[in-house]
Amino acid sequence: MSNSHLFLKSGFPRAPLQNGVGRYVCQLQRLTLKFCKNNGSSRGMRDFIENHLVDFAKENPGIVVYVKPRRHRAPVLVGEYLNGDREWLSVRNSTQTEISKWIDLLKTQNGSSSSLRLRKMWHTDVPSIQGPWTPFLLRSPDAHNQTYPTSEASQPLDVPQTATEKLIELFKQQQLEADTVLEQKRAE
């Protein structure tokens, strides 16, 4: 086993606050394009800014785009997300199509979760403290010895009786009580 996980942040996978339940909220909050006006490695970034940046900004009004020229530095894309994470990508010697693909990747991510060592492969917002559900959870133990189909096992235990069923049961109890009273009078 390698020790590369020692330098990664560790945590649990987290979906960003029920994103997509009501409507989708883009997690990319800010995009900063840093480039050099003269350097050859920034040619693709300059072409992207000249040809595609205005269209990108119109298509994505929820993302704030900053353009930051810097002298004698390699071009960089910096994405800042709603959860506070920052993703930094070097796009040195990239073409404008490659840069647009990198920007689309930043737009569809929800932060730097790729540099996070996951402690568990699953996550739930409301964990169960009662254990996993099974088909036999609410069944009577007597149902295991019955042969099917039976009328007793057709109704689950957690379903309440209907009002009609309660009335029929009360009527039968009253009839049984009346019959026992008549038998007692006959016996006397």
From TrEMBL:
The keyword Ribosomal protein applies. SMART domains: L51_S25_CI-B8. Its main location: mitochondrion. GO terms for cellular component: mitochondrial large ribosomal subunit. Transmembrane segments: none annotated. It is found in: Mitochondrion. Residues 37-110 form the Ribosomal protein/NADH dehydrogenase domain. Gene3D superfamilies: Glutaredoxin. It comes from the Eukaryota. Residues 143-154 have a biased composition (Polar residues). GO terms for molecular function: structural constituent of ribosome. GO terms for biological process: mitochondrial translation. Pfam families: L51_S25_CI-B8. InterPro entries: Ribosomal_mL43, Ribosomal_mL43/mS25/NADH_DH, Thioredoxin-like_sf. Keywords: Mitochondrion, Ribonucleoprotein, Ribosomal protein. Residues 140-159 are annotated as: Disordered. Belongs to the mitochondrion-specific ribosomal protein mL43 family. This is Large ribosomal subunit protein mL43. The lineage of its organism: Eukaryota, Metazoa, Ecdysozoa, Arthropoda, Hexapoda.
